[in-house]
From TrEMBL:
The chain crosses the membrane at residues 20-41, 127-154, 174-195. Involved in the TonB-dependent energy-dependent transport of various receptor-bound substrates. Protects ExbD from proteolytic degradation and functionally stabilizes TonB. The lineage of its organism: Bacteria, Pseudomonadati, Pseudomonadota, Betaproteobacteria, Burkholderiales. This is Biopolymer transport protein ExbB. It is found in: Cell inner membrane; Membrane. Residues 100-202 form the MotA/TolQ/ExbB proton channel domain.
Length: 239
């Protein structure tokens, strides 16, 4: 209750600058939590897709594998499989483009890499907001503290008294601004680190899946790198 009254006093007794700093910190906090919640839900969904992608290679043919990946248009594993299939078919059926100077391996690699890069950009969108909030919120709160202390000193100079009852309230309210800055920055930093770890795990699974897809489209079989010598796991081709 005391902290609530303190924050209320900051708003009531503060001037335009103090209130502006409080509003900025509130907006930054809301933006951070929105990004954290949305991206966390995305990571949970994509991790489910990662686990489902393991069943793709236990299918009888490519079409059955796509069925196991589901019909979610945002599934990066399904999109990667379709992109690889289209790239392979395009390379084999088209003879009048510059990409004919590339063999099918290079062409499929390029298309799969572009697909992964697009998904990576989408996966990492919003992280810049968390990084910005985590790095600037403490300084914005500190600015509010300095501004509040300045007004407390002005009040002391005007009254000519420096007793504790004259400075305790204004100084305490000013220090609340520093606490608010830290309260905004800490969740943003922790959320950023957690999301980066989650994104890294998803991208690792996607790159591994792309490696197997590349081997499948080029050689007709998936390369299983378990052990010193890679094993080739065949899967029937299907459109």
């Amino acid at each position: 209750m005391e902290s609530q009254f303190g924050i209320a006093n900051v708003w009531i007794q503060g001037d335009f600058v103090t209130r502006a700093v409080a509003i900025i910190l509130l907006a930054m906090s809301l933006a951070s939590w929105v990004v954290i919640l949305i991206k966390a839900l995305d990571i949970i969904k994509f991790k489910k897709h990662t686990r489902a992608a393991q069943d793709f290679w236990h299918s009888e043919d490519f079409a059955a594998g796509l069925t196991k990946l589901g019909a979610d248009p945002t599934n990066p594993f399904r999109h990667l499989a379709l992109e690889g299939r289209e790239a392979t078919a395009h390379h084999r059926n088209t003879k009048a483009h510059l990409h004919d100077s590339l063999d099918v391996s290079d062409w499929v690699t390029r298309c799969l890499r572009n697909c992964i890069d697009e998904f990576t950009a989408r996966l990492q969108s919003g992280l810049a907001i968390l990084a910005s909030v985590g790095s600037t919120a403490p300084f914005i709160g500190l600015f509010g503290t300095v501004w509040g202390i300045y007004h407390a000193l002005v009040a002391i100079g005007t009254s000519g008294q420096s007793t504790i009852d004259k400075v305790a309230g204004p100084i305490g309210e000013a220090l609340i601004m520093t606490a608010l800055g830290l309260a905004v920055a800490i969740p943003a930093v922790l959320g950023y680190n957690a999301l980066v770890r989650g994104n890294k795990s998803i991208l690792g699974g996607l790159n591994s899946f792309a490696h197997d897809l590349h081997a499948y489209f080029v050689t007709g079989a998936r390369v299983n790198a378990g052990g010193e010598q890679a094993k080739v796991l065949p899967i029937k081709k299907g459109n």
